[in-house]
Amino acid sequence: MTSLPEPRTTTAGPIPFGIRVSVLRGRVSEFFVRSGRAFRRSLELRVIAITVGLSAIAVASIGMYMGYSIGDGLFENRVQQVEEEAARATTVAQNTFDSSTAVDDASLSVLQQSVLDDVTAVATSASGLSFQAGPDTPVNIGLPDADRGGARSVITQALRDDVVGGSQPQYFQSVTMPDGSGAPGIVVGSAVTVPGAGLYELYLLFDLSDVQQTLSFVQSTLWIGGTLLLLLIAGIAFVVVQFVISPIRIAAETSRKLAAGQLEERIPVRGDDVLATLAQSFNGMADSIQRQITQLAGLSRLQQRFVSDVSHELRTPLTTIRLAGDVLYDRRDGFDPTTARTAELLHTQVERFELLLADLLEISRYDAQAVDIEREPVNLVRLAEDAIDDIRSLAERKGSTLTLTAPGGHFEAEMDPRRIRRVTRNLLSNAVEHGEGRPIEVIVDSNTDAVALAVRDHGVGLSETDAKRVFDRFWRADPSRQRTTGGTGLGLAISLEDAVLHGGALDVWSVKGEGSMFRLTLPRRIGAPFGESPVPFGSEKDG
């Protein structure tokens, strides 16, 4: 019996620091991108953010000013108290020395201790003191230096120079307390004259930690109050913005519904303020637009019905005229030349009239949105070959040669063959009419998403202005130009409608004197999206 292998435990190693930094940087970048997108899209967020930001700057400025002002006031007040207390202590020490009669070392030592005790009793808030001989005082006098509370360690030479040589009765200096707490302090120095001994320096050290604690409490209170104030401002801004944004949001939603065709939508009017005036103006505009659109829609329906009715009504007399004309046309050889020519003109114009009626009926169906499409898989190359065969004789009479280029690919696509064949014939007829007898190229190509057919002639071409109007109904670039293909002026307009019906596109490229290129691009499935056309356009192909 074969035993199963023992399971192995794999321990993943730590993620390298560089990868962690890269992931963190990507997340931070994504956060800022999303925040920026939300900031740009939301008017409400922008208003609140700008309000809170400006308020934060104002609150921070006021808070810092008040903090500095309160701190300076507390410090100045404490310095004044310290100076007054130190001055009283110095006065007591000087008076005690002046009234003493001690001359020997022992009595001077007792006197010094008494003076220091008196100074300590007067300067009750002092944390330490230092009593030391001046720089010119003899060292053999019986008044040794004294230090209490580590005051001597914080006395600087600059302060000693000011105390000994300065004109002021006392000087002070900001220091750090020597107890290692890092608390702020002040040392105040003054000169004391000892009869029979010389000049001595008296320094008193005062702890300012209580002032620092008071200042810290005030500053923290200011920052907490400022933060709460900002939150209150943000809440107020949110509420105020809601009153302003809500009508704007309602107006935007109403505009969207109007654009979607819901012409009965209106903005509710509340109150008499400027927003109510805006709503009334908007509703008045919507009423006017609705009336005009309704009127235009009615006129359009009347026009479509008129064209359709006229086209149908004309078919019966046209059929009679066509029959009579065909009889005359068939017997034209027995007529005199003038009558024979008249019979030929009658036959030609009746055919053109029939084409015009057919095109009018077709364009009226598009206008009425009553067009049906019969889809089936069609090979566009085969369809192009059939259209070329149908128009080859006309091209030969005009002196143009027709060539078909199909590089290969997926030429079969879902389409209505009757409509696409009509588009192809229209493009070919148009190229023959304006090709000036030069060669005409038909290109069919495809990719995975679309198929395309392009017709390129090298005739007169179109100006940029004419190229923009080439798909307009009954428009001709040169009205004086004689037509040989019997066009109705609706061919390109119907071709464009056929292309759009398939979810495709019909484009034109043209340069005056260099010819034109019409390109039909169709999706492989009707209505499916597609990217670039498989056939390069205009100058891209020529290049």
Structure description:
- This protein is of the alpha+beta class and about 550 residues long.
- Among the domains are: about 275-365, Signal transduction histidine kinase, dimerisation/phosphotransfer (DHp) domain (Helix Hairpins), CATH 1.10.287; about 375-540, Histidine kinase-like ATPase, C-terminal domain (Heat Shock Protein 90).
- Helices cover about 55% and strands about 15% of the residues.
- The protein contains 12 helices and 12 strands.
- The protein has helices at about 15-40, 45-100, 105-120, 155-165, 210-260, 275-330, 335-365, 380-400, 415-435, 465-470, 490-500, 540, and strands at about 125-135, 145-150, 170-175, 185-195, 200-205, 375-380, 400-405, 410-415, 440-445, 450-455, 505-510, 515-525.
- The strands form 3 sheets. The chain has a 5-stranded antiparallel β-sheet, with helices on both faces. Strands 7-9-10-12-11 form a 5-stranded mixed β-sheet. It has a two-stranded antiparallel ribbon with strand order 6-8.
- The radius of gyration is 52 Å and the shape is rod-shaped.
- Residues about 1-15 have low confidence and may be disordered.
Which of globular, elongated, flat, extended, rod-shaped describes the shape?
rod-shaped
> How many β-strands, per DSSP?
12
Helix run count: 12
Helix content: 55-70%
CATH superfamily of the domain at 373-542: Histidine kinase-like ATPase, C-terminal domain
Percent strand: 5-15%
Mean pLDDT comes to: 81
